């Protein structure tokens, strides 16, 4: 009886005090807040928010929220239409990242923190 009590005490002691030292792999994915605004005069005015995986490029995040038509170029995909609204003639979809016009394409904008993307139909 005394031996069983000691054994039970050891098992309970190890269960209570040793278990917190066990670590399990963290399967959670880091996400960021992605905000998207698409505007084109009277044709489209879309605002969307989504939690996306940190490190995703903005092109992939945009395609998760709206239908995108692209033309493949040597620089990467060029956005030609958004939500069925096509850039034709002397118009194009201008990309703004956190309020500033982007100097790179959507595929090269990596989302590492909460990001505001605006795509606006503009003429050149």
Verbal overview:
- The protein has 124 residues and is α+β, with helices and mostly antiparallel strands.
- It has one domain: Ferric Hydroxamate Uptake Protein, Chain A, domain 1, CATH 2.170.130.
- The chain has helices at 2-18, 58-65; strands at 31-40, 44-53, 68-73, 76-82, 85-86, 91-97, 100-101, 115-123.
- The mean pLDDT is 87.
Tell me the number of strands.
Answer: 8
Could you tell me the CATH topology label.
Ferric Hydroxamate Uptake Protein, Chain A, domain 1
Helix/strand/pairing class, anyone? alpha+beta
What pattern of helices and strands is seen along the backbone? HEEHEEEEEE
Name of the level-1 CATH class = Mainly Beta
Mind describing the biggest β-sheet?
A: 5 strands, mixed
* Helix percentage range: 10-25%
Average residue-wise pLDDT: 87
The strand order across the widest sheet is: 2-1-8-6-7
- What is the number of domains? 1
Percentage of β-strand residues: 35-45%
Total number of helices? 2
Structural shape: rod-shaped
Gap from first CA to last CA: 90 Å
Rg from alpha-carbon coordinates: 25 Å
What CATH architecture do you see?
Beta Complex
**Unreliable segments of 5+ consecutive residues:** none
């Amino acid at each position: 009886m005394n031996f069983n009590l000691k054994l039970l005490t050891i098992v309970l002691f190890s269960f209570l005090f040793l278990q917190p030292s066990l670590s399990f792999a963290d399967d959670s994915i880091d996400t960021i807040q992605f905000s998207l605004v698409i505007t084109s005069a009277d044709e489209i005015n879309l605002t969307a928010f989504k939690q996306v995986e940190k490190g995703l490029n903005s092109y992939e995040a945009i395609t998760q929220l709206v239908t995108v038509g692209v033309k493949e170029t040597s620089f990467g995909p060029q956005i030609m239409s958004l939500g069925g609204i096509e850039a034709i003639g002397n118009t194009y979809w201008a990309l703004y990242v956190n309020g500033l016009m982007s100097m790179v394409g959507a595929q090269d904008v990596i989302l590492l923190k909460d990001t505001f993307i605006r795509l606006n139909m503009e003429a050149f």
